[in-house]
Amino acid sequence: MKIYVDESGDLGFGPRASRYFVLAALIVRDEQTIRRCFKRIRQRKLKKSFRDLPEFKYNNTKGLIKNRILQCIADCDLDIAYAVLRKDQVYSRLRDKQQIVYNYLTGSLISRIANQYAIEGCIYVCMDKSMYSLQRDHFDDYLAYRMFDNGVPCATPLDQLVIEHVDYRTEPCIQAADFAAGAVHQRYRENNEIYYTIIEPKMTIALDFFKGRQK
């Protein structure tokens, strides 16, 4: 099982910080369909001057292309899980501990996926190396620990958990996770579901911290 993770929003608490922080995970059964999807959109839908852009980003993509990317993701053989943090509910003592909050959210989401899917064999988790990576070793250890959380032992031994931190620009599957996270974030941030509804049929897990129904 391969899981690709990316986020939308930030974990700051200043006047310009986002109200929500979203993590999205793509549970992918055939990553080549996603890579072909992005390649096809780049070659057929973008103007020649934009075809060599190193990456797609949700926040920098215009509506029509954004719609096509999300529809293409929805047509791929994958599921989507996400966690959303309502930042105004975070304890004041944790507001300057971004790494701890990030580790907790990611660990909660990945362990929920592992338990709900009763995954056997190797679990491959791929993340963007540029975000919250100063304590990467601690993150990897914490994620392994959380695989046995929620009271249901994961079928996969810890030595079969593979965590990789890669450059976002080189991995279309992480870019796809960014689009999923962006659509979810826009739903919460603006109460706008125009893009969320495209991928909603693929949603299997939704964790809302600390309010709302847990799917």
What's a concise summary of this model?
This is DUF3800 domain-containing protein. The protein is of the alpha/beta class and 215 residues long.
CATH architecture, by name, is: 2-Layer Sandwich
SS summary, helix count = 6
CA radius of gyration: 17 Å
- Based on DSSP secondary structure assignment, what is the total number of beta strands? 6
What's the CATH topology label? Nucleotidyltransferase, domain 5
**Share of helix among residues?**
25-40%
Q: How are the strands ordered across the major sheet? A: 5-4-1-2-3-6
CATH top level class name: Alpha Beta
* CATH homologous superfamily descriptor: Ribonuclease H-like superfamily/Ribonuclease H
- H-E order: EEHHEHEHEHHE
Helix and strand content put the structural class at alpha/beta
Largest sheet: 6 strands, mixed
The count of domains is: 1
Uncertain residue ranges: none
Strand content: 15-25%
Averaged pLDDT: 86
The shape, in one word, is globular
N- and C-termini, Cα separation? 21 Å
Task: Give an account of the 3D structure.
- With 215 residues, the chain is of the alpha/beta class.
- The protein has a single domain, classed as Ribonuclease H-like superfamily/Ribonuclease H (Nucleotidyltransferase, domain 5), CATH 3.30.420.10.
- It is built from 6 helices and 6 strands; from the N terminus they run ββααβαβαβααβ.
- It has a 6-stranded mixed sheet, with helices on both faces.
- Helix 1 runs antiparallel to helix 2 and helix 3 packs parallel to helix 4 (136-146).
- The two termini are 21 Å apart.
- This is DUF3800 domain-containing protein.
- It comes from Methanoculleus chikugoensis.
- InterPro entries: DUF3800.
- It holds the Pfam family DUF3800.
